[in-house]
Design brief:
By secondary structure, this protein is mainly β. The chain contains no helices and 11 strands.
Length: about 120
């Protein structure tokens, strides 16, 4: 079994910063990709940023220049540094981890989400 747990959400003023963390734990042999998605009220879930175990990153246009995704492979942990936050960044942020388990089966796992609220 694989568990994915996010942390670091909270309330921040426009222009402020937050750092989200996500740890994947359990029967993991290797991480393939970890990513952050978000879902605002009344909207579909969308990809914010992703990173492969090799360090290749991709970002949504809305995140480019403001957010930075990074991964600590040794800790199976991914981070999302969010700067210059805007009101429209308010959402529940979900961590997605694609891993190979101890039997080298590829699986897709999601965390429960962490709330980010940007408000003045």
């Amino acid at each position: 079994q694989v568990h994915v747990v996010e942390s670091g959400g909270g309330l921040v003023r426009p222009g402020g910063s937050l750092r989200l963390s996500c740890v994947a734990s359990g029967s993991i042999s290797s991480i393939d990709v970890m990513a952050w998605h978000r879902q605002a009220p009344g909207k579909q879930r969308e990809l914010v940023a992703g990173i492969s175990s090799g360090g290749t990153t991709n970002y949504a246009d809305s995140a480019k220049g403001r957010f930075t995704i990074s991964m600590d492979n040794a800790k199976n942990t991914v981070y999302l540094q969010m700067n210059s936050l805007k009101l429209e960044d308010t959402a529940v942020y979900y961590c997605n981890s694609i891993v190979y388990d101890v039997l080298w089966r590829r699986g897709d796992y999601w965390g429960q989400g962490t709330q980010v609220t940007v408000s003045s």
